[in-house]
Design a protein that fits this description.
The chain has one domain: Roll (Thiol Ester Dehydrase, Chain A), CATH 3.10.129. The protein is 27% helix and 36% strand. The chain has 6 helices and 6 strands, in the order αββαααααββββ.
């Protein structure tokens, strides 16, 4: 009899190279940018001073790259998942990133969403370790905000 982790591993493994799905749009507003600046003590004018930011190539304030990265958990939550992959799940934890690239800035008031593709899956019982390539798209832009290979571990009971 297979364990929940072994069953999940087989399902995740079968999805390697396939798009998991696309999430919902989410607006990055100035209030969120300001809150992130407060939490991280990163008050660079391109993020928090709309008047000064008008003279930059962006013409407006932009989200911190790390703000966009930190939104992955929220953005990922809106991507439809195969419930069978999570049967018997006890918890999930972030394990890290293999690669993160900040491709394009997110201008204030723009909406972003995430697209996920399974890249690597490993069985480390009772864990299934997944690496997914997460692409955060900016509405109306040809280049994404960021691309990250995100490693998570899911524990099964």
């Amino acid at each position: 009899m297979s364990t929940n982790a072994e069953k999940a591993y087989a399902l995740f493994h079968a999805s390697i190279g396939k798009e998991e799905g696309v999430g919902e749009w989410f607006e990055i507003d100035q209030a969120r940018i300001n809150q992130f600046a407060e939490v991280t003590n990163d008050h660079q004018f391109i993020h928090v001073d709309p008047e000064a930011a008008k003279s930059t190539p962006f013409g407006t304030t932009i989200a911190h790259g790390f703000l966009t990265l930190s939104m992955l958990t929220w953005l990922d939550a809106s991507i439809p998942k195969d419930p069978a992959q999570y049967a018997g799940m006890v918890m999930g934890v972030n394990y890290g990133f293999d690669k993160v690239r900040f491709v394009s800035p997110v201008k204030v008031g723009r909406r972003v969403r995430c697209r996920s593709v399974a890249a690597v899956v490993e069985l480390k019982e009772p864990w299934v370790q997944t690496t997914r390539t997460m692409t955060v798209e900016i509405e109306g832009e040809s280049k994404p905000a960021l691309v990250a290979d995100w490693i998570t571990r899911i524990m099964y009971g």
